[in-house]
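Why does residue order matter? Because the sequence determines the fold. Keep that principle in mind as you read this record.
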Amino acid sequence: MGDIRQSLLPRDVLSAAKELLYHLDIYICNMVQSGRQPPQVDTKTLDLIEEFILHTPKDRNAPVRRMSALQELQLLEIMCSCFQEQSRDTVRQLMFSALFNLQGNQADESRMALLSKLVSMAVAVGRVPILECAATWLQRTHRVYCVRLAQVLVDDYCSMVPGSGPTLQNIHSASPRFCCQFITAVTTLYDLTSEELTPPLELLQMIVSWIQDDHRLVLITFLNSPLSGSQPLSSLDVTPLGGLIRWCVKAPLAYRRDRKPTSSDGSSDGAPDAARLFSALHLSVLQVFMLLPTILNEKGLFGRLALLQMESVAALTSDLSRLLDQADKHTHAATADAHAASQLALDRLAQALQVAMASGALLCSREDLRAICSRLPHNNLLQLVLSGPVMYYNNIHTPPLAYSPHAAHSPIPSHAAIPTLPAHTPHTPLATHPASHAQYPAQPFMSGMPFPFRPGH
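Structure:
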């Protein structure tokens, strides 16, 4: 494609970008049709993308070509139409990669800016092909950039424009893959270490409603990805389970530290009660864990693959220990409320560890677990988990597994059921949590005006 540069130079910025996208589509279609393995866009084509779409000068003396806000909006509409009209997913994915895979050069900032605007528009107008491509991008890209994209979407739909949250909520049904990756990214972004890094209540309520509606949602990336040992350490986790547990465990202390009630009843401008939402989220996360034994057995991975990493648990217990120390220093005198918040955080940690171990999501010895939790204060439930056998919490209602990653005649043999462990002295059962919360009413996507993809001459 390098020979078309001379024809693009005289054009205005929008016309040149439009023409290049058209030729890029044809180039990738021909490459896929030829069966070239692996299909890879050449360096000359990537240079054209940087010059005429991302507007990175080819040399220092070249004038910088910039788009007006209106031209940029028109380009985003052209790109939406381009991906919508292309029926082959392989072509779409290669085209998205050519446009937005980070190259480690000065064009990356332009890539991120354009990508964020494109994905935000795709959410608004319901362009599922772009959301599917963005889900793959989130799966393969360094987590630093993934959380930047997530931050833009949270700002656009939960902060800047009041009442726009239901539009974002619809990604649950439009693209479950993207929704799963978005949850993983926001749980990585918001680690509850400060008020700025505490999830907005509107976002929290949205995530709770998504997971309550379909517990398998947080497992979609795991269920639909080929399993390999080559997962980059810098990428997002394969599920958001670790981040969700961190939210639930740290919330009683973090929200007590950061949230200042604005009315006599402790509510904040009619916003959903954070404690109630985190309680519902904690129950949903435990129910997700209860789905895992069947799934891991079907994949032949029970006892071999840890979806919850020990490093994540160690980091959580370290953060929790620090939060508990801070709470003690700021309280000066142990109040009943402060003690209750501390015990709730420890109870949730104990419940999560117990169910994660019983479901095969956490693989570790009791000795390792005791070492990790050694700095935490005494908690009756946690003490039982650290010293007693792993048992299932059969009182958690788990919906039937409607999706199996393998067909009925799976080549993977079925595994024996996990033997029943000896009973021990019963301990405090999981607290009863509220029933499902009110959902946002379903909102249809905006139907965007068709925008011709083929450039005019």
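Residues 261-271, 391-452 have pLDDT under 50 and may be disordered.
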